Structure formats: C-alpha cells, structure tokens
C-alpha cells in the first residue's frame, strides 16, 4: 500500500495518500487553527473502509496558506483570519453566531489557491474535476463548499463536516448549480462554535438547490465523530460505483 507523503502542489503544501490505480481524487481541507496535516490520517481510515476500492482513490490534504504561529499557536494554520476576541465572547456567552452575511476578505484568495491545487492534481493524476470529491472540517468545509459553488466544472461530491452557511448573498444565487450533486453533511447538536441551527440552514440551501444531500445529526460538539467518517466513506464508495457503471 502507498504511504503518505508531503509535497507542494500549486502554492500549497499537501499531504498526499496516493492510490495504486487512481480513478478518483478526494481533497479534504482542515479547519481554522489546525496544523496542515490535521486530517491526513483520515486517508488511512477511509482507505481501510473502502477495502480494495481504496486503491482507486488518491487523497490530498492541503495545508492552509496562513500561518498562525506568530500568535503563539505553534504550527496552526488558517484559510482566512477570524476575530478571535469576538469568537471567544460568543462561545463564553452562548451567543448565536449567524454568519450568513459574513464574507471573509481572504476567501476568494483561498478559493483560488485551492482551485489551483485541485487542477494541478487532476492534471497529474489524469482525472477530470468530475472525478473529484472535495470537503473538509469547519472552516475547511466552508472553503470546499465555496469552491464547489464557484467551480464551472462540478466535483463528483462534497463532504461538509461541521460547516455553516456564510456569504449567503453570493452562495444562494450559485446554489442551483449543485443540482444532483451528492453531498454529505454532519453537525453536532451541542456545537458551541458553529451553531447546529445554522448548519441546518446550509442543509436547507443544499436541498433547495436540488442537490442529493444527506445530513447526519449527532449528539456532540465541534468535531468529526466516527459515524461521520463512515458516511463520508459511503459517499466516496457511491461515486466509485457510478464510475464503474459508467465504464462498464
């Protein structure tokens, strides 16, 4: 079995877990404040869940471009900056965080960097964007959603672990482009960082767009529970099955 490696793809460092006969690329983006390799070990788990089909998948885990190390956060990174004082006040007071009108200034640049990395990987692996699943956790899932909405060539699927709706004035008009797209979304009912209700708003947007969206509600905080990893594996397997049916 191929091993995890680190190299630069486009302008982003990435951990790559290659397949021996790649037909599908899966790109998963970590959340705010995590090290670049935060999700990389999921490649092992997901490949194991996929069995022999795991060798048909290359997993890529890009590192966010912004280093938070100078703030005393070690190797932590971000796709865009957050107002940490505002976030901490909201968590401490239990205030509801409605981000629907938030439009991070650095989001377009993050999307551009992710687009470049995905495009270069697709060229290297000789797979089209339509044979790519994108996703991530928290801030990384928001970026993946933004990428899927803006991408002219749509991916084969979207994974949203503990994400939320933001930039609604931009996202809502683009949402119909996700019609029939397989989407898996999960969120904890006691999430103190991104409220569960706001996650449901995002799910409703997916449903209204005509996407093939599935939502996992779990009793827990801001995290990725085992069942959310298993359901992501199911989405990936379904995409692989469609590829097999198409080629037979």
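^ structure tokens above, recovered residues below v
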């Amino acid at each position: 079995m191929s091993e995890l490696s680190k190299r630069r793809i486009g302008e982003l460092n990435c951990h790559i877990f290659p397949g021996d006969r790649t037909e599908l690329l899966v790109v998963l983006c970590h959340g705010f404040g995590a090290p670049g390799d935060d999700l990389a070990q999921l490649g092992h788990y997901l490949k194991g869940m996929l069995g022999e089909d795991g060798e048909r998948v290359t997993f890529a885990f890009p590192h966010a471009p912004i280093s938070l190390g100078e703030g005393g956060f070690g190797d932590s990174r971000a796709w865009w900056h957050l107002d940490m004082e505002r976030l901490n006040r909201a968590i401490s007071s239990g205030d509801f965080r409605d981000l629907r009108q938030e439009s991070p200034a650095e989001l377009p640049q993050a999307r551009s960097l992710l687009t470049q990395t995905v495009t270069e990987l697709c060229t290297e692996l000789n797979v089209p964007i339509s044979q790519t699943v994108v996703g991530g956790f928290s801030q990384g899932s928001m970026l993946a959603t933004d990428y899927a909405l803006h991408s002219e060539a749509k991916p084969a699927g979207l994974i949203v672990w503990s994400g939320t709706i933001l930039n609604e004035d931009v996202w809502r008009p683009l949402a119909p482009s996700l019609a029939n797209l397989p989407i898996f979304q999960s969120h904890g009912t006691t999430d103190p960082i991104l409220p569960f209700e706001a996650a449901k708003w995002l799910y409703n947007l997916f449903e209204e767009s005509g996407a093939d969206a599935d939502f996992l509600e779990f009793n827990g905080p801001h995290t990725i529970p085992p069942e959310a990893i298993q359901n992501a594996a199911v989405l990936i397997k379904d995409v692989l099955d469609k590829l097999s049916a198409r080629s037979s």
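Residues 184 and 232 are 7 Å apart (CA to CA).
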